[in-house]
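User: I'm new to structure prediction. If I give you an amino acid sequence, what do you actually give back? Let's try with this one:
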Amino acid sequence: MTFLQLLLIAVVQGITEFLPISSSGHLILIPYLTDFSDQGPLIDVAVHVGSLLAIIVYFFKDVVVLARGGFASVGIGKAPAERKLFWWIVLGTIPAVVFGLSIKMGLFNGFAESVFGVTIVDGDLMASIRFTDLIAFNLIFYGILLGVADFFGREDKVFENMTWRDGLLVGLAQALAIIPGTSRSGVTMTAARALGYSRFESARFSFLLSIPAVAGAGVLIVPEIFEAGATLAWDALIAGVLTFIAAFLTMAFLMNFLKKASMLVFVIYRIAMGVALLALF
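Assistant: Good question. You get back a string of structure tokens that encode the predicted 3D arrangement of the chain. For your 281 residues, that looks like this:
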């Protein structure tokens, strides 16, 4: 892969992973809109790992709190408040794991093919004539939901006071992000805003909730990295580093932006992009 292609993938991933506009939808569309070949699952996971490292660095204090909660859960130290927050992250991760495993087992094959025109092979969504329609529909539909939740949602809850019910509901929303065009950060922020969390706290919980999912994907791909050969592994490393830089800068921008502005600009972008995709394809 050329450096230009790696740079494009990294910038797209780094920006769209944290902005509520669907990173998977943008990454899937790169080979459709350019002459580049599909980057493949190894590069996709590499850029997600770069995003994960950006989360850990930016939210280092929160990560330490969650780590203390994890240690307290196995009897190392005493941190009841942190232990609760740790388990809410675990609880919110379970729906995505269950949904992902169900897709791998082929439980949704018939539904996906008949409703969305998408074929699932070995747990991967395969492009079909209606695949871009699916991405466009999700961009528009979940964009509208984000706008409604952001406009009507209260702002009286913070992550530290989260209940198990809220953690589970946001986790259920995260499971929907397996479908391209939905946006993991977008749908989890939508759920959190609908539950009464501020924009800042919604983004904060969304990013912390992504840590187990992205880390799990990175661990699963490690054997393939060693089997891929030096060239592809080097490409993955470059893509990961570039993504880390883009993701960290994007995250810093978004967290400051949400302290003083609404999510309307992201809603407009999603709808415009969805309409453009329908017209283009």
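You can read the tokens as a compact description of the fold. Here is one thing that stands out. Residues 125-129 have pLDDT under 50 and may be disordered.
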